[in-house]
Specification:
The structure is a single chain. By secondary structure, the chain is mainly alpha-helical. It has two domains: 434 residues, MFS general substrate transporter like domains (Growth Hormone, Chain: A, Up-down Bundle); 56 residues. The protein has 20 helices and two strands. The protein has a two-stranded antiparallel ribbon.
Length: 494
């Protein structure tokens, strides 16, 4: 029998309460990955900071929210997902307030790290909580609704930041999170209940978590700083070596640890394995697209940062329309077909973008963005649903953490590659000014060089998306009757 929750005298199914709480957290986390972009020039002046410090205001948040996903997923499996999710709300809200009170760039970077750790706690547990309470024939739709928030939040961040800056000081970019975070924390504490059964005697694998975090941190720093110091420079090469050693030791240790932070048996499930791999390659291929298009709109077409952000709207609108539909289709026939079609549609959008020229009108750019959003809506919910369906109930936290970590790593790598494309075709000072939101218009020579570089980047992304589509198609079919039986047994047990 489905759990009911009483709200203002009305009975509401508990699963919808979970979706409402996790949606608030997902929206906050996704908005804050991009909301500060338009505020960077003002922050740089008022905090007397340099350009590199401002870049780390963005990258520090993304770095921490990526590195800690696996760790927090495992901790949640041990201590409880609801407890970890609610703690994430508190940490994120406190971090937001501290960011608003920062007096130096160093303080702001440190407090953004706090924010990012809270975001990691929420992101990794939101998918696990949704998977736990929704039956298999509704998970796709629920994850589709949750996916809307990530899509909208990523584009809404710069727009909301621009609106705040027209009305108030840059500090309110962070202060605005406080009332929303307090509401979300209280709502989660009041409404959520722990459904997973914690195993007695399990210990946290400190050495495994430490080696993984050090290795991934080295990789992400190398990718983001490689633009400044060159990827062949000694410091960057050493960081790549640290990454390889850290990952090699991590995999060696996890095979021997009694309670590993990453249960490698997850990858024995073909559907989970291929779903995670296709998600990572898709992120690697497509996350750079937004940045390259923003650079194009600002540097080539001459739009200011706020207008450039507003012109990205066709992408989240189409994702918002298609994500619930993609989830519904996956609930009926499985993930393989809609997810694969979604990737092929995104590949078509990338091919469309390879035609981009300085004279291309915006409506053609908007059409490509809409096509990209349509494919994303068909891919994200079914693929995530398939991955989580392939994980054991007592490992949902680490399964979600692994999926999110590899997807985020693909995003950061894609981001670094987009900067590499810009750096190879633009003067470095111009590229950095575009990155932090200053209004810069390119001359004819660098403009054409940048467009040529963008063509190459989109061709590479097209190849990667086709590879992801192939992996998605051969993942296999989910045993939906078995999943339904497992969920029914869980509900009866609760």
């Amino acid at each position: 029998m489905e759990t009911q929750y009483s709200l203002f005298g009305k009975k509401i199914a508990y699963k919808w309460i979970v979706l409402s709480v996790t949606t608030i957290g997902a929206l906050m986390a996704s908005i804050d990955s991009t909301i500060v972009i338009l505020g960077l020039p003002e922050m740089m002046v008022k905090l007397h900071a340099d350009l590199i410090s401002m870049i780390w205001v963005i990258m520090g948040y993304i770095l921490v929210s990526t590195v800690f996903l696996l760790t927090f997923g495992r901790v949640a499996d041990i201590l409880g997902r609801v407890r970890m999710y609610n703690l994430g709300f508190v940490v994120f809200t406190v971090g937001s307030a501290l960011c608003g009170f920062s007096n130096t760039a160093t303080e702001l970077i440190i407090f953004r790290l706090v924010q990012g750790s809270g975001a990691a706690m929420m992101v990794v547990n939101s998918v696990a909580l949704i998977t736990e309470v929704f039956p298999p024939n509704q998970r796709g739709r629920a994850l589709g609704l949750n996916a809307i928030t990530f899509s909208i939040g990523g584009v809404a961040g710069p727009i909301l930041g621009g609106l705040i800056l027209t009305l108030a000081d840059w500090r309110w970019i962070f202060f605005i999170n406080v009332p929303v975070g307090l509401f979300g924390a209280l709502w989660g504490y009041r409404a959520l209940k722990e459904m997973s059964t914690r195993r007695q005697g399990e210990r946290f694998d400190v050495l495994g978590a430490l080696s993984f975090s050090i290795g991934l941190t080295a990789l992400l720093i190398a990718l983001t700083l490689g633009i400044e110091y060159a990827f062949t420079s000694t410091p960057i090469v050493l960081l790549f070596v640290v990454f390889l050693i850290g990952v090699a030791f991590f995999l060696w240790w996890e095979r021997r640890a009694s309670n590993p932070v990453l249960d490698l048996s997850l990858f024995n499930n073909r559907i989970y394995n291929f779903s995670v791999l296709s998600a990572m390659i898709q992120s690697l291929a497509l996350f750079a697209v937004n940045f390259l298009i923003v650079f194009y709109l600002q540097g080539v077409l001459g739009y200011d940062p706020l207008k450039a952000a507003l012109l990205l709207i066709p992408l989240p609108i189409m994702t918002s329309i298609m994500a619930p539909l993609g989830g519904n289709v996956a609930d009926r026939i499985g993930a393989r077909v809609p997810a694969t079609i979604g990737l092929l549609v995104q590949g078509a959008a990338l091919i469309w973008f390879t035609r981009i020229t300085p004279a291309m009108p915006y409506w053609q750019i908007g059409a490509g963005l809409a096509l990209m959003g349509l494919g994303g809506g068909l891919f994200y919910p079914p693929n995530t649903s398939a991955a989580m369906n392939g994980a054991p109930k007592n490992r949902l936290g680490i399964a979600s953490g692994t999926l999110a970590t590899l997807r985020q790593a693909g995003m950061v790598t894609s981001f670094a590659l987009s900067l590499a494309v810009a750096a190879s075709s633009l003067p470095r000072d111009v590229m950095m000014q575009l990155f932090v939101g200053n209004n810069v218009t390119l001359g004819s020579a660098p403009m054409q060089a940048f467009v040529t570089g963008v063509h190459s980047a989109f061709f590479v992304s097209t190849f990667l998306v086709i590879v992801a589509a192939g992996i998605s198609f051969v993942r296999g079919k989910e045993d939906r009757s078995k999943l339904a039986e497992e969920h029914a047994a869980t509900v009866m047990g609760d």
